[in-house]
UniProtKB/TrEMBL annotation:
SUPFAM superfamilies: Acyl-CoA N-acyltransferases (Nat) (SSF55729). It comes from Microbispora amethystogenes. Residues 9-170 form the N-acetyltransferase domain. The keyword Ribonucleoprotein applies. Keywords: Acyltransferase, Ribonucleoprotein, Ribosomal protein, Transferase. This is Ribosomal protein S5 alanine N-acetyltransferase. Belongs to the acetyltransferase family. RimJ subfamily. GO terms for cellular component: ribosome.
Amino acid sequence: MADQTTSIRLIRVDDAEVIAAHKARDRQEHAPWEPAQPDGFYTTAGQRARIEGLLDDHRRGDRWPAVIVAGDEVVGQVTVSTILRGPFGKGFLGYWVATTRQGEGHATRAVAQTLTVMRRDLGLRRAEAHTRLENLASQHVLRANGFRPWGIAHAHILVDGAWRDEIFWERLLDEEPPVA
Ligand SMILES: CC(C)(COP(=O)(O)OP(=O)(O)OC[C@H]1O[C@@H](n2cnc3c(N)ncnc32)[C@H](O)[C@@H]1OP(=O)(O)O)[C@@H](O)C(=O)NCCC(=O)NCCS
């Protein structure tokens, strides 16, 4: 049986190969939910360059880019981006899980752990996310982690060949997470 334990850690450049393999295999399945990427995104070299950029952002304090690990296998990513400090104290949450490991609770647990990092390590007070109206799995993950929808942004993101409406979600980080 697949390992059901979930952990998160900062992404490393040597994660590039496994991430490229997941993203190449899942390109069609993820297409309705994530912006289109150039072909280089699906290669190890492309992912190395991308991860180096993510880590540059992390050193500047703009982003907290992590991988989701099941047992000792990297199965996805969770990233806090657009970190705003000062009077906002918030970050935007994004994530994906490999199709080979979906439905095992990894995204739900990884988001719970990321909320703890946002509150305890990054000192933020608010998490935000957005989902397409049709992305019921992602909405399930957010609801399980105490996010509430607060509006719809029209024509908000270019995904799968058209500008799509999205639900905006918020989570105040001084509230305790409802999941372990
Ligand atoms: C969204 C995503 C990250 C979920 O990952 P996951 O590890 O499978 O999520 P979990 O197993 O933690 O939870 C998914 C929940 O949604 C439910 N779900 C899945 N598909 C569903 C659907 N079509 N309708 C309703 N619920 C659904 C599952 O039953 C599960 O609920 P449960 O915990 O009560 O069993 C994954 O599907 C993914 O990577 N999708 C493509 C990228 C993406 O959409 N990213 C988010 C962009 S906003």
